[in-house]
Design goal:
Layout (H helix, E strand, L loop, with lengths): L6 E6 L9 H14 L3 E6 L2 H13 L8 E5 L7 H12 L4 E4 L16 H19 L3 E4 L2 H8 L3 H5 L1 E2 L18 E5 L9 H12 L6 E5 L14 E4 L3 H7 L3 E6 L5 H5 L3 H8 L4 E4 L2 H10 L2 E4 L3 H13 L2 H17 L2 H12 L4
Helix pairs in contact: 1-14, 7-12, 10-13
Length: about 350
Amino acid sequence: MDARRPRVLLLAMYRLDSDRTGPMVRIGAVRAALARLVSLDLISGTRTGRTWGMLRYALTGRLRGLAGIYVESSSSLPGPADLLFLALARAAGVPVLTYIRDAYQLFPEYYPLTSLRRRISRMAFLPVFRTLSRLSSVVAFPSRGLARAVLGDGERARSAALLPPGARLSPVAPLDTTARDLLYVGSLAHAASGGDLLLEAMALARERVQDLRLICVVPEGQGLREPRPAWLEIVRGGDREIIALLPRVLATVTPRLRTPYNDLAVPIKVVEYLGYGRPMIVTDATETAAIVEAAGSGLVVPATTEGLADGVARVAEAPAAQLLEWGDAARNAAAANSWDARAADVLELLGVKP
């Protein structure tokens, strides 16, 4: 460890034993980017694991000389030990930046109240996360809409920082404009994710462009409805497997339905798609559409079977020059929104100069 570099603590409210879910992708990427800029300490794990980690950290005097704490909150509620540790850090003069990634508990399409435990989590969500935000020097969200959902419509939401996902810039195969596979990455466990919409739209698009195929890279334990059509391929894996698939991929597709949560969420996979250098087809959920429109990296279509099918067919029928223009725009947008850029944003918000 270089004693001349400022020391920052990353408090990750997840177990970091996988890189195949959105939160793990984000935390792994920002952790690596921060470690290139500062001396980085890490506390992570479940509530129990974090509690012991934070206790050891405080008792061994590691808070002394700490330049800042960056908190990656989880989808579940932070525990009392998390709040106590951050209060102790603030009392010691350590700045704290907390990133609040989602608010599923507030939106029935992602968090139906099917049990007493879920009802309690729903009731506790706003008080707990608002307490977490008050214990932070700065609180950040992926979008302004999510900030308003958690903090209300007042000045606190307007002054919250924005830290949307970044893009990885792994070397990728050049776009083959004759490819006929479309790529979807992520969970389709919730109806609002658009799994049924995607399959129906692909079937309709294939009536117009008959050789189209779909690759879905989904988490372990998840699949799609049976029987599967012959043009659908299910893959389990992470970034390495996705990169290996890209020579076959013409475009990426995001079929999210228009729902209150989808309109304010910023899916990590949509920003990751920028780095693949392929045209992007997305439905018109507000934040998702804004990414593609700002990048000029593809088509925004209505979140209907006909709208998505038309977008898929239009991309498949587009001239090679247009496909390459979209792909280049995606890659350029990824370079401007890399995880290194996000790590620099984190340090700036903490007031840390690497």
